[in-house]
Amino acid sequence: MRPQAKDIFSYRKYWAHKFAPAPFLPMSREEMADLGWDSCDIIIVTGDAYVDQASFGMAIIGRLLEAQGFRVGIIAQPGWKSREDFMQLGRPNLFFGVTAGNMDSMVNGYTSDRKIRSDDAYTPDARGGKRPDRASLVYSQRCKEAYKGIPVVIGGIEASLRRIAHYDYWQDKVRHSALVDSKADILLFGNAERAIVELAHRLAQGENIRDITGLRGTAILRNSLPDDFTYIDSTDVEAPGPAQPKTNPYSATPTTPPAVQPQTAQVVTLHTRPRRLDRERTAILLPAYEQVKSDPLLYAHASRILHLESNPGNARALVQKHGKRYLWLNPPPIPLTTKELDRVYELPYQRKPHPSYGDARIPAYEMIRFSINIMRGCFGGCTFCSITEHEGRIIQNRSEKSILQEIEAIRDNVPGFTGNISDLGGPTANMWRLHCKEEKIESSCRRLSCVYPDICKNMKTDQTPLVQLYRKARAIPGIKRIFIASGLRYDLAVQTPEYVKELVTHHVGGYLKIAPEHTETTPLAHMMKPGIGSYDRFKAMFEKYSKAAGKEQYLIPYFIAAHPGTTDEDMLNLALWLKQNGFRADQVQAYLPSPMALATAMWHSGYNPLKKISRGEKTVFSPKGMRQRRLHKAFLRYHDANNWPLLREALKKMGRADLIGNGKHQLVPNWQPRGTGDNGGDKPRPFRTKHSAVKKKVGRNRDPHKHRR
Questions:
Q1: Residues 55 and 116 in one domain
Q2: How far is residue 391's CA from residue 386's CA, in Å, rounded to a whole number?
Q3: In this structure, are residues 306 and 597 in contact, taking their beta carbons and an 8 Å threshold?
Q4: pLDDT attached to residue 264
Q5: I need a labelling partner for 337 at 20 to 30 A (CA). Which of 21, 376, 656, 687 fits?
Q6: In the listed set 222, 240, 261, which residue is the last one of a domain according to the structure?
Q7: Structural domain total, the chain
Q8: Confidence category of residue 690, pLDDT binned at 50, 70, 90
Q9: Helix, strand or coil for residue 554?
């Protein structure tokens, strides 16, 4: 059974609870004075503008700590080139809490082609350049400079996804854990409500942060390993094969595996391991930072073990040596109960940006202003996605009552509301209340996905409760429409036809975005996504119920270019499918290797961590060169004339020049409009090939577009 956890709202409140809740968490000394505060107990430093709404991490953590009785201040998007901005609220009594914001700062600041983004949706007026690269590291170091001796706690998605030695796409190298580089005292990963509440109360009671070592959902650094744990080398969990051509670094004596080289800890092997071990006092020794940095096979092995040890019901602590110190990752946090999650979302948020921003527009807030988060987590396990690594695979649900009350609160309190709720969702639109049939099975499961390669027989997929929620939501007085904008798992949706009917009839605004990601078997297998047949079944239902409702509605499918495991031929076949089905993508997404994701391990190492790794296995191909990445994106936008020269060249090299021409079965024409592609002149130029369907020379006075009509 899953370990039990203390209710996060059951702690005795800190003495400062006598102060009333702040209208907004203060961002200045003047606001603190208005509240009657002489100091802050906790100061949160964030890379996002401060929006007091539950879709923003700093607001959730700040309001939660306020509910525990602490005085919480916010330093949002500080200047990072000196310590001055980090001193604007004074010295915190307990700790600094540091987060890069709702997004990893590198993903936020750079495109998948490593180009600097010109805007930032989490900044007033979308101004770019308001946060540093690897913001959690920089902010942490500035906090240390501002007030020496004050503990620094890092968290949020950037710290969460960089909690272990990880491949960094922007530097093209394996970096240390963010805890090492930031010089913070402790790292919180995942949705950190449980950890931050317990940590705050223990620090308030006078504990030294260095003595808080066993807190779930945290990573710490140790100088030595405790003797009261049993240690298992990760190669005993699953041997990856020889790490070097001649020498296996795991072949040392059983008591001293070189992955971490513990000096006093007890290490057991398959031959010496007792039949039953206490999981709470067992840790797995991963290959050291220096090893995963130099050997891609060991990097892929460590990534696989980390993901296999991600279930809160059976995960063990993980240890990875960094230099002379040991990075210790405690097991993941226990998911919040429905009662706890309801209270988190019912805290006294103002549901708008801090008044100091005036009339400035914050795009991220505008997008979610009228949306409601009904759940957390995702059991899909898509290899390119960071949701599982951050929020976990177990779905955490809000109650129907709490969700309906929030709709009424938006209706009554949010400026500009016109009667339309923009989304009822979360990481996925239709996983609310879906769960394993037995908690015992769920707690012992080690599957990386509950829906791949097929939906698990133990997974309850009935979405009838969600249908009932939708109906009650749209029946609330003053509510005109309820839209569903979160990502939809269509392979689950088709399991409940009544859900698809309800969705299509009442909750689609003309277009529904879904993400099959690809059509070809090999890329889909490396993504852990269902085959295109699931999309076809959903499409048939969508069209059937749209017609029955008398509505003209369309599916907008999303696809990924240049994902690990994708060849030029795969992209060509996808392009032909797109043309056959009449899709013309306006924007396309090229794969971006985010820290710690399974697909990133494939990208960096060439090995597939979805299965047992061995040196002699066939490696995973990843399209890394910029020209090939451009080509894969061009296949998705086969209709863009600027891409035609590149596509023609590629088709010739692939032996598919038969697809160049003006027929319906062909992908790109054999002519080029003036001013497009590599044709910057005034005259249109024909493209010639022996397989061209049109071989006539395009005359000076001839309309080059005429043959398309």
A1: yes
A2: 8
A3: no
A4: 55
A5: 21
A6: 222
A7: 4
A8: very low
A9: strand
Q: Determine the pLDDT at residue 614.
A: 84
Say how far apart CA 118 and CA 108 lie, in whole Å: 10
* pTM higher than the cut 0.85: yes
Query: Does residue 507 sit in the same domain as residue 430?
Result: yes
The CA distance from 90 to 93, in Å, is 9
Burial of 657 (C-beta count, 10 Å sphere; 0-12/13-18/19+)? middle
Confidence category of residue 678, pLDDT binned at 50, 70, 90:
low
Partners of 561 in beta bridges: 590
Number of H helices, E strands in the chain: 24, 28
What's the rounded mean pLDDT across residues 438-459? 95
So what's the pLDDT on residue 272?
A: 61
What's the burial of 276, exposed, middle or buried (CB within 10 Å: 0-12/13-18/19+)? exposed
CATH code of 20's domain: 3.40.50.280
Among candidate residues 564, 597, 624, the one where a domain is terminated:
624
Bond from prior residue into 453 cis (ω within 30 degrees of 0): yes
Contact call for residues 194 and 336 (beta carbons, < 8 A): yes
- DSSP, residue by residue, 173-213: EEEPPHHHHHT-SEEE-SS-HHHHHHHHHHHHTT--GGG--
Whether the Cβ atoms of residue 563 and residue 526 lie closer than 8 Å to each other: yes
Residue 181: give the domain boundaries.
1-222
Q: How far is CA 238 from the centre of its chain?
A: 27
With bands split at pLDDT 50, 70 and 90, how would you rate the model's confidence at 685?
very low
HSE-CB of 494 using CA atoms within 13 angstroms: 17
Bridge partner list, 268: 232
| Angle subtended at Cα 596 by Cα 590 and Cα 600, rounded to the nearest 5 degrees | 40
Token pair of 670 as six digits: 């054999």
Q: How crowded is residue 329: how many other Cβ atoms within 10 Å of its Cβ?
A: 26
Q: Is residue 468 located within the same domain as residue 592?
A: yes
| Three-class DSSP labels, 279-324 | HHHEEEECCCHHHHHHCHHHHHHHHHHHHHCCCCCCCCEEEEEECC
Q: Averaged over 476-488, what is the pLDDT? A: 96
Q: State the average pLDDT over residues 534-546.
A: 97
Q: Return mean pLDDT, the chain.
A: 91
Tens of pLDDT, residue by residue over 614-624, are: 887 778 999 99
Name the residue type at position 217: G
Strands 423-425 and 371-373: parallel
Residues 144 and 35 in one domain: yes
8 Å CB contact between 102 and 57: yes
Q: Cα–Cα distance between 433 and 459 in angstroms, integer?
A: 11
